[in-house]
Amino acid sequence: MKNKKIIYWSVVVALAGFLFGFDTVVISGADKQLQTLWNSSDLFHGLVVMSSALWGTVLGAVFGALPTNKLGRKNTLILIGVLFFLSAVGTAFANSPIVFSIFRFLGGLGIGASTIAAPTYVSEIAPAKDRGKLVALYQFNIVFGILIAFLSNYLLQDIGENSWRWMLGVQAAPALIYTLLVLGIPESPRYIFDYKKDVAKAKEILLLVNTPEEAELELEAMSNEKIKEKVDESIFMKKYRKPLMLAFFIALFNQFSGINAFLYYAPRIFELAGLEKSASFFSSIGIGIVNLVFTLIGISLIDKYGRKTLMYLGSAGYIVSLALVTIAFYFEWKGMAVPLFFFLFIASHAVGQGSVIWVFISELFPNKLRAAGTAFGTSVHWVLAALIPSFIPFLFKEIGATTVFSIFCLMMVWQLLWVFFQMPETKGRTLEELSKSLAAESSIKQNSNKKVENEFI
């Protein structure tokens, strides 16, 4: 029963990922309709209409730690549901590109904040042995939302000239359901302990999912970490340089795979590869199915084989698939070649980066700084997620798809090298143990650098 409660809370919170995935991809179905409707240039369409949600996501990620720490994990998750609901209704009724972009921006705020609040909440309630798969439920819901968005777009594409309004508006229903469900979960016990300083309440929540002995051990670990923390500590202190750089690079490589660029423009890319409109939409559903299946595989493996092993698999798959896509565009192969190569690309992403990123970032920082550290990592992710898709229509026109995908392929070679030389394994270790270990590594490296400098002098 206690395990069922943890699973239920994790699933409810992870539904924020469903809204994230749906919101991210649903715009791809409206892409060309909106550009034709408002007669937008490629640059305006990419930077404003298509990417307004992404700019909101950047802001939500940069400042998402504030409500996560001030209002609490639970209240922030409720606010996220409200933002998604307003975005769905507002975009469905928008009559100008500016109004449309404003409401898409609100949805983006919800996405950015959810990438901080949801993984933070789940990582703080999950036992160490199951933390990977429980936090990864957020990623599963992202890809489930992506699949449903692709399917919804396919089913709604021919209902009339205003089909895009229905595509965007249907998200209001799951947003409302999610918000109501979050009302019924408790606050994170680690948040209650660290920010509300209410030990009795934190213990009360821990006892819902732990034996009295386990609850006492968790409280002791939290207390020991709190004793070591200083009031004015920041993630930018030298002792946290190692986790900070790990969060930075996993986020950077995630977006330089080209994943968001592809998800935002999947039908357009498939049409460039020679598929007709209907076939492009249908192939997008295939992408969603592959994404879902291989995310399930990644989630089932993440606590057994570890984060680093999955990143090796994903990196190798990225390199092979992106190389094939580059070759296909260079030689102008038509038909199903490009969709099939992208199926491999999506499978590689789902098993590797897709399953690992939110888990890994949420594990790197101590309890008091977890929201701030997660906010940093997700901010890097979303700044790049906004910039790269914004310029895709322009880049496809100016330098061509072949060059764009060859750059993504080269970046994945660099990712493979980073995983080999820099990425630590975090599976099966408590959050307190990880934060202590990574801070110690930063201190050792700092002292080593000082020693080298002194010897040089």
| Helix-strand topology string | HHHHHHHHHHHHHHHHHHHHHHH
| Class inferred from helices and paired strands | mainly alpha
Helix tally?
A: 23
- Unreliable stretches (pLDDT < 50, length at least 5) are none
Envelope shape: globular
| Mean pLDDT over the full residue set | 87
Number of strands: 0
Gap between N and C termini, in Å?
Answer: 63 Å
User: DSSP strand (E) fraction?
Assistant: under 5%
Largest sheet: none
Helix content: over 70%
Estimated radius of gyration:
22 Å
Textual characterization of the structure:
The protein is built from 23 helices and no strands. The model has no long low-confidence stretch (mean pLDDT 87). The longest helix is centred in the N-terminal third of the chain and has 37 residues, at 2-38. Helix content is 81%, strand content 0%. The radius of gyration is 22 Å and the shape is globular. The protein starts with a helix and ends with a helix. The protein is mostly helical.
